[in-house]
Write a structure and sequence with these properties.
This protein is of the alpha+beta class. The chain has 7 helices and 24 strands. It has a 10-stranded antiparallel β-sheet with strand order 1-2-3-4-5-8-7-6-9-10, sandwiched between helices. Strands 11-12-15-14-13-24 form a 6-stranded antiparallel β-barrel. The longest helix is centred in the middle third of the chain and has 18 residues. The protein is elongated and about 75 Å long. The two termini are 48 Å apart. The N terminus and C terminus are likely disordered.
Amino acid sequence: MKYCVTAIVILLGAILAGSNAEARGPYGSINVGNWKGGAYTNDQTGAFSHCSAGTQYLSGIYFVVMIDDKGGWSLGFAHENWALKTGQAFPITLTFDGQTPFNVHGVPVADKLVRVPMPDNSSLIAQFRRARGMTAYTQGQLFEFKLDQTGQLLPTLANCVAKTKQFGVAAAGDFSVSLPKPVAAAAAAPPGATKPEKTGTQSGTGFLVSTNGHVVTNQHVVEGCVGDISGNLTGEAPVTLRLVSSDETNDLALLQALGSFRDVAVIKDKAIQSGASVVAIGYPFHGLLTSDFTVTTGIVSSLSGVMNNTRFLQISAVVQPGNSGGPLLSSSGEVVGVVAAKLNALKFVRATGNIPENINFAIKTGALRDFLDNSVVSYQTSDSKTELMTTEIARNARAFTFLISCKAKLPAESARN
């Protein structure tokens, strides 16, 4: 059941709770798309306290943005199913446009309302101001928010504060602001203008790590994607994957498909050793060689990558463009790495005069587990001693290995695959 109008007004006023005073309002009006609000005063002193606006999403969560009389920003989240207590710990993980997540601590200010202070000098508010989308993970649930109207909302809130402080609530009216209209594109491109970027199909591999549909892949597999990212389990209809978070440094990305899944990859609890057998699963050259995934075997050749980079394993299992993001599995079928790249043979020949053979790399599970922990995603671990036949490993992997594809800006020549 959605909040009634009276309850929404109370929430907008309660967002600044923390003292014994309540807020009264709204005075004037903020109307930006579905965002509604205005100015509020301290009910005990009559002094202006804050401007806020909120909107409700289909998930049932109500989202509030506020600026107080001193210019401090806050976010508010309310849900009718919450039963909160003052002083209760309320951790929230916020992710803007799939970038590095922010772990913040909300402050319950009512039984169904949490306030998240956002210092104006923090990178959190900077990302919020320019973001187009946001996710919030809390209480075991993931909520999604479109922020495509914040470009108008935030200046309107700032205008509300400025006008109310200058003229008082008695003069409050419509706080809307007019944003400059974008300059219309010229009918014909001027001489020397750059041509529009071309797009093409970009594909790679990923694997399920949670029954809630979380899929791990390489960051470079989804880099430059425009529009929807598609995921396919073998023999299943394609599903849309949304980007949850990414880590450019470790070349990892976390996607999520709607729905629940039974079969997930299990991550090996202990680090794999040099010389151990491994199996790489992926979709190389999808559509050119085969529509099914491929299976290649090899060993762990080294416990470090190029220039002794200890975040990587060097493997002899053959990988090709499209294998990126796929699971590297042990002889017991557990994930021991994320296939990431193969050595650029042409550059290697130019540098050494020798042709490299079967020099490929995978991201170690230490970096993978840190990434999943930071993204607040649960996953399974094991350290099985039971060795499986390669056919069994491949059969099990079929249930959790995704083909990932999207339309993307055509990249410059890269050593990655």
